[in-house]
Amino acid sequence: MVSGTTFGYLWVTARCGGAPVELAIAASPDQAPVVEKLAAKWQEDAPEIDGRCAEVSVRAAQSAEVAQSLTPNWKADSDVPRVDVWMPDSSIWIKSAAARPDVKPMVSNTPTVVAKSPVVMALPKPMAEAQGWPDKVISWAELAKTRVAGTTWARFKHPEWQQIKIGIGDPRASFPALGTLLSVADADGDNSVTEAELGNALVLARASTVEAATSDTFLARMRQVTNAQAGLVNAGPFPATEAQVAAYDNAKPKVPLVAINPEEGTVFADYQYQVLKADWVDSVRQKVAAEFLQFLQSEDSKRAYGAAGFRDPQLSTQYAVGLDTDLGMGSLPSAARDIPDIKSITQTVGYWTALQRKANLLAVIDSSGSMADPAPDGNGTRMQVVQQACLRAVALLNPQSNIGAWRFSTELNGDKDYQDMVPIGPAGGQLPDGTPRKDALQEFIYNRLVPEGATGLYDTMLAAYKNLQNHWQADNRLNLLVMMTDGKNEDPDGITQQQLIQQLRATANPDKPIQVLIIGYGPDADLNELTTITKAVGGQAFPARTGADIEKVFLATLIGRQS
To answer: InterPro entries recorded for this chain (predicted)?
Structure first.
């Protein structure tokens, strides 16, 4: 997680009496300056609570960091310092924290909202106009498909901007990123994300080419642009709040941004005031928190938030200033939408996280004669189902992953039961003959997986394990051996199961861990046999009856949730 904690100011005057009591507030970075100013203004009247001087300290902290740190045992000297009041940029962080049983009693189900701001697509104005804005509504999903297809800005008559670039951010750290991901994934807007809809997240993940954790980082890069034309080469759409875009544009940058309400609909950042129910928030601090909240709901406070580009809790812009309508700000989005349920959020973010993980993968696929038999679910032959599942699984991989592919049956290469069809290497790279590895993989999957022979499982597994160990990659990669078979070992001339287990254990290197996954496809796969041999190196075997089962197992492996 990117660190986002910045200490603000301690506001106190010398006119109040009694032993001071300090109220510690953590506010999201975009609203923290406003809260600091309001705390200073509140202190001007030297507030006293139960005869004691009330002090307010405000610091900026990424909402996701506070959500992760929140616990009944939160220590005052933790890396993320303990607070009494939490003001995140979205209720989703409160809900996600409250999903933990020990945290749920610490937060209110009905906290007070002090401001709101729509999450928009921030896009350089020239790029928006090139796509037909403001007359045309722009879609994240369509932009993502355009990027994945390799389309350049030449399509929009601006070849000088080169490749289309999209930044999403980290949905685990940024609400604009999370809100955008969920609105794209939940295509039908029913506030839940089905497994079928997760494919929308895949397209968005593969389209995201500009790495940054939060909207603040994207905006900071735009502020550094000194030449408009040169800056557009590295620019593109990214999610941000309307208030963030307003603050950026009001500084008169070289490249103005427009705030677009995307076709998928608009989610809102709802800035809440959450007084924690914790042992360290005593009755006096609770009273200070209540008094300060009352002040935050005053007309002066609404104007202060409005001056920073925020809307009031009812989405009105009556207090807001600096919302330039020529740059898409200030209107009420026609397609406002809610955030999906916690289960869908957890599932979607987990899926996204898996898609970002870099792997070093060797896929070994059974091409024995039985793969020509009908598939268990009736959808063609076993091989046809596996072919489609393989293509979908490869699409899940981060483009910076390494991948190689073998096939196996019996005596494919002399007395060897296996054949190296695509050597391990960068997924986006080329083979020695210049063939793009992706093209070679597709050719292998579609045309080279010809069912023939029996199943030489043991010799193949040992050779594949040794091969991947020779190509082992560090850099926090997942080194993964995936085998798919519809049967059991049928090579009487190869090594025995006991020999396989002994040699696997002798070959394994704890300094170079390899995750082994065997998928037993169909009713003839011997899961007991597969489990026995995978356990020798800490691997796992899973049954599958459909292509969807294969994809689920592979995705669970990327996420790290096998069971």
So the answer is: EF_Hand_1_Ca_BS, VWF_A, vWFA_dom_sf
